[in-house]
Amino acid sequence: MDDRYSADVLSPGWRDAGRIIIPTQEAVRDLVVEEIATGFCGAVIRVEKKIVTLEDRHGKLRLFPLGSGFLIDGRPVTLIAPTMAAALGRVRTASGSTAVPNAPARVARASRIFVEGRHDAELVEKVWGADLRLEGVVVEYIEGVDNLDAILREFRPSSARRVGVLVDHLVPGSKESRIAEAVARGPFAANVLVVGHPFVDVWQSVKPARVGLNVWPEVPRSIEWKHGICDALGWPHEEQADIARAWQRILGRVRTFADLEPQLLGRVEHLIDFVTAE
Predict the structure, then answer these.
(1) Could you tell me if residue 103 is inside a domain?
(2) Is the Cβ–Cβ distance between 208 and 215 less than 8 Å?
(3) pLDDT in tens, 126-156
(4) Can you give the residue range of the structural domain that contains 192?
(5) Mean pLDDT, to the nearest integer, of 30-53?
(6) Which pLDDT score, from 0 to 100, does residue 136 have?
(7) Which positions, given as ranges, span the membrane (predicted)?
(8) Is residue 265 part of a domain?
(9) Is residue 180 part of a domain?
(10) Pair (138, 265) in one structural domain
C-alpha cells in the first residue's frame, strides 16, 4: 500500500516535478524550423546578435529573436546561438566534401571540365567551386556541344590533359547522345569522358521545391523552354535580361548539393574524379 505522505516535498528536484523540459537546439545553418506565433517555416540562413534569419521555400526571409517559440518536426525547441564548431557545421563544402580551411587554390591542371553554357558553369561553381579550386580544375563553357569534335581537336586531350564534358539532355536518340557516341569512337576516346543529365536544361537539375513547385512544368516544343518556364512561374521573359534575372533567382535558391537532383550530382562527381585521376 502506497504511503502518500512519505515523500519529502523539499527533497532535491521537487521544483521540477511535472515540469515539461523543452530541449535547446543550436541554430545551425540549413536547420528547418517553424516559428510558432507566425507559422513561418524556413531554413536557418544566419545568426547575428541573437537574431536568427530564416528563409522559406519561396525565398522569403524573416528575422526572429533566438529563444523559445520554435518547432522542429512539430516539437517545441529553444533556439540558441551555435557554438563555433556548430557554426562551421561539419566543415563541409557546398558539395558535401570535407572542407580544408585556408587551403590555397592549387595551380590549374592542364585537364579541364567543359560544360555547355554559362548557367551550367555558374551552378557547378556554386556547389563544387571549393572542391575544384582545391583540385586545380578549371571549368569552361563551350556554348553547346555541336562543335565538340572541333574543340577537342584543338585542345588535343592526352593522359596529362584529360577532358570531362557535361552535356544537357543526354538521352537515347538525342542529338547530344549521337555526339557523345562519336567522341567515344574518336581518336581522343581514352582521355575524354562525356556524361550528361536527362534534363532539357540545367535549370531542371535544381529541385523544383526550391522555387515553390512540386514539379517543373511541361513546356511544349513550340515554345523556347526557358521562356515557357518563366511564363509558368509568372516571371518576366520578354527580353534576355529577364531570362538572366530568372536564372539568378533560381541559382540564389541553391545552397548545397541537397538542393540539386541526384542525376546531376553523380555526373559532376564522376567528371571531377576523371580529370583528377593521377
Answers:
(1) no
(2) yes
(3) 999 989 998 999 999 998 899 999 999 999 9
(4) 112-206+254-276
(5) 87
(6) 93
(7) none
(8) yes
(9) yes
(10) yes
**Which pTM was predicted?**
0.69
More confident of the two residues 194 and 19:
194
> Residues near 78 by Cβ (< 8 Å), separated by ≥ 6?
22, 23, 24, 25, 67, 68, 70
Q: pLDDT tens digit string along 176-234?
A: 999 999 999 999 999 999 999 999 999 999 999 888 888 999 999 899 999 999 999 99
Number of domains the chain contains? 2
List strand residue ranges (DSSP E) for 36-183, in order: 41-48, 51-55, 61-65, 67-72, 75-80, 112-115, 138-141, 163-167
Please check whether residues 151 and 269 belong to one and the same domain. yes
Q: Are 53 and 28 in contact (CB under 8 A)?
A: no
Query: Per the domain annotation, does 127 fall within a domain?
Result: yes
| Spatial separation of the C-alpha atoms in residues 108 and 187, rounded to whole Å | 25
Interhelix angle 262-276/118-135, nearest 10 degrees: 50
Give dist(CA 135, CA 113) in Å, integer: 12
Residues 54 and 134 both lie in one domain? no
Same domain for 129 and 264, yes or no, is: yes
- Under DSSP, the state recorded for 206 is B
CA–CA separation, 44 vs 135, rounded Å?
A: 30
